[in-house]
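Reading group handout, session on sequence-to-structure problems. Before we discuss, look at one worked example. The prompt was deliberately terse, the way you'd type it at a terminal:

> structure 3-isopropylmalate dehydrogenase

The input record follows.
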Amino acid sequence: RDSHDIRLAVIPGDGIGSEVVAEGLKVLDAVGLKVESTTYDLGAARYHRTGETLPDATLAELREYDAILLGAVGDPSVPPGVLERELLLRLRFELDHYVNLRPVKLFPGVATPLGEARPEDVDMIVVREGTEGPYAGAGGVMRRGTPQEIATQESLNTAFGVERVVRYAFDRAAARPRKKLTLVHKTNVLTYAGDLWARIVDRVSAEYPEVTTDYCHVDAASMFFVTQPRRFDVVVTDNLFGDILTDLGAAIAGGIGLAASGNVNPARPGSQSWAPSMFEPVHGSAPDIAGQGKADPTATILSVAMMLDHLGLPKEAARIEQAVADDLVERRTAGAGRGTREIGHDITERVTG
Ligand code: NAI
Ligand code: MG
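And the output record:
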């Protein structure tokens, strides 16, 4: 088949998920690639109807696509943790999305709580480990609900798992103009895991003499994200620190409506460890505004651009990113009051040219 075909699995999910995904698909359509997409009904509605979160047969089907586009899952009617662990985290683990990629980039014209910050001050990529750390599900509970309850939640860090994400981060850093990699951890307190991460960064750095390496404790990093975001170019960090730090990143770069992400399996297509990567906005299903046509689809549209870049279509990705950048510049003056579909429409028009 033609190499520019994309076979895409779409999981709109819950709440605003389906609203923003519809706009993402419109923009994707406008770049003129041949896309064959199939929609999967997963999330809260499916769970209530059938009790299923991610049936094995569906997972097996999803493996056959080139990529997955996800809106958001989650609803107050589903017990916390069910969809997160059994659907989202399961997809990340099963498809070995060991890189969780979250750009933190301030587009021109976008308001930031940092006040004085300019676009060149906030331009980094956070490479968050996606399959290990405290999210691996290790631990347990005893005597639950009693005064003697014990709960443990262990952080798993393997040399293999850390090295592969660190190598990915060095590759990204080497390809950027500033060529700087910052490890963010808490090596002074989490001495076993922190030591493993620090030694691996140190060892791998010898293979990337052109990349400057730096280290920052996670608490200090949260401060510097706000006071000196310019310090950061590529950040590599563990699963939990990366989760928290990237919400802060989203806030400084214009808010949750703009933050895109990729759950990436970087293996080469055709290799044994390859599986489709999954792209999604950082935000959730926003039950407070769902169904009102108010959600900003920009984060999803930028996630579509990341997906094209990942699939080896950088020109098409850049066209979408430019269309978003142009739309954002005008939002300041003319953009107020537009809803989900208007923003999607306007960005689509710009891509079409
Ligand atoms: P949320 O991201 O859904 O909403 C937080 C706040 O941001 C809300 O006030 C919401 O209206 C606003 N917001 C979010 N996206 C927006 C957009 N595109 N445009 C304009 N405003 C937007 O986070 P929350 O409320 O903590 O979680 C709601 C549900 O989503 C929960 O069930 C949670 O588990 C789930 N969730 C799912 C995620 C995923 O699918 N990857 C990620 C985060 C949360
Ligand atoms: Mg999060």
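Points for discussion. First: The pocket of NAI (ligand 1) is lined by residues 16, 20, 72-75, 84, 88, 256-257, 280, 283-289, 295-296, 299 (CB under 6 Å). Second: The two ends are 28 Å apart (CA to CA).
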